[in-house]
Amino acid sequence: GGGVGAVLERFHEEGYEIEIVGHSLGAGVATLLALLMFRRRPSMSIHVYGYAPPACVCEVLAEKTFPPKGERKRKAPNNPVPRKGVKEAMLGPSRRHSAIVPGKGGVNVLNIVLGDDAVPRASTRNILAIAREIVARQGEWKPAMRRELEDVQRRALGLWAPMTRATHWNRVARLTTGNPADYYTKDSGEGLKVAASEEDIKGTSPLLVPPGEIVHIYSKNGQRMASLVNHRWPGFRQVEVSRHMFRDHSKDAIMSALRDTLAVRQCQRATPRWMDAPPIGPVLCAVCGYSVAWASSSDNPLEQSRELRHCYACGRIVCVGCSSNRMTLPEFGINSLVRVCEHCYVNSAGKFRFGEKGCLPKQQ
User: What are the backbone dihedrals phi and psi of residue 294, each rounded to the nearest 5 degrees, phi first?
Assistant: First the structure.
């Protein structure tokens, strides 16, 4: 007969080594196909290599797609992947640590997940959990959204005139008394109803998880790092809401991140630690001294968090106006164009003075 299964069986009988590669839905289909073929022919050895796989198998099947305890690398979840492991992630599945038993066959799965990619975390249980959290915290985000819409309408009446740093502070002084709570307005109405109770979430069956060994690529102070994890890693137990949760799913972003990870490991030099934002009050730019949200439609704390940027060279918080320049930082293994502040860009003609505390004078 025909079909993919018959073709794979013929290749297996002719001595070919079977590898299946896929991205997103293709990665999930590749894993399920490999498991079905192994069930059909237990002597088959199948290697699956996936990018951004969905949560497509139960925990029992997931355990069968990566090496048993005695053969796994002795590294706790979120510990760095060995240098060779990242190259294997780019070039193909690992042969040294495999779920395949010599002479008996098996399925070995190696997947790549970038940052906050939502697809590997998009199980029914995780989605219900985040929906419940959104409903439970509507008292926090609904007033902020109301204030933001009011600010957009106010600026639209002015024909969307460009904002300046000075007018931003005048507006803050006029609309508030210095108390961050004054940024919000009281909300009225019944609000949203709880979509799912705790019992609904616990009763959701089955719990689907991403399969195999997973190389998780993440950013730390602007540099790309990689860790070897599996479906039991707590980071896969919730959907990470971030601005990159969908962009991190693209193939181009994943391949670029893999190359950046290799470059960072070759340079072996860490970037300066990124500055933390103050817990309360306005977030100020380290270069001009004004709020990072001075050019935005709204000045509430949510807008400040969206407008917050870091200089990749010195790690300080800067506004959009003071971080418009882009350059590579090969000293840190960053070969793509990244954001740098005016201070670091001006000093880039000579020797970099990373982490220097001096700032340019405030703009008048």
Answer: -65, -30
Paired with 32 in beta bridges are none
**Per-residue pLDDT, 347:** 83
CA distance 240 to 235: 8
> pTM of this prediction?
0.73
DSSP annotation of 296: S
> Residue 217 is encoded by which pair of tokens?
């690529």
Burial of 230 (0-12, 13-18, 19+ CB in 10 A): buried
Q: Kindly report, residue by residue over 244-271, the tens digit of the pLDDT.
A: 889 999 999 998 899 889 898 888 788 8
Task: Count Cβ atoms below 10 Å from residue 169 Cβ, excluding itself.
Answer: 15
Identity of the highest mean pLDDT range in 65-74, 99-108, 182-191, 266-275:
266-275
Q: What is the pLDDT of residue 49?
A: 92
Give the span between the Cα atoms of 33 and 36, in whole angstroms.
5
DSSP 8-state assignment for residue 119: G
**Helix, strand counts (H, E) of the chain:** 11, 11
